[in-house]
Design brief:
The protein is an alpha+beta fold. The protein has a six-stranded mixed sheet, covered by helices on one side. The two termini are 27 Å apart.
Length: 125
């Protein structure tokens, strides 16, 4: 495990928090601000996608997206290849007003335009 610079920790945390604002406002065209072009996204039973354009389309066509996303208990770990693994707990308010809990495992890569999520796996709790 390699050390993550403080500025990268801040930028990664901002990137992960920004996902919620983009999804909650349904501004799916902005997903490139947080997800890599080659993102692999897996939320079993709800939504899967390979690539940014497929992810945008999947969210646009999702019949009942969550209304509000919240992440907490964030843990970051660096790797020798320069990527960072982010593990966090998540709560989302669904369209029917129920609350769903999950665990997100993200892999992020630093790009010339900032940190981007290259992989997100969601495990319902």
């Amino acid at each position: 495990m390699s050390r993550i610079a403080d500025i990268d920790r801040i930028d990664i945390t901002d990137t992960l928090n920004k996902v919620a604002y983009i999804l909650d406002s349904k501004e799916y065209d902005r997903m490139g601000e947080v997800f890599a072009e080659d993102v692999r996204f897996s939320n079993p039973g709800r939504l899967t996608a390979n690539g940014l354009e497929e992810l945008k389309t999947a969210f646009r066509n999702f019949p009942a997206p969550s209304l509000s996303h919240h992440i907490t208990n964030l843990l970051l770990s660096g790797s020798e290849d320069g990527t960072v693994k982010a593990l966090c707990k998540a709560l989302s308010q669904r369209a029917d007003k129920s609350i769903a809990a999950a665990e997100y495992t993200d892999i992020l890569r630093k790009t010339p335009t900032g940190w981007r999520i290259v992989s997100r796996t969601i495990k319902p709790l």
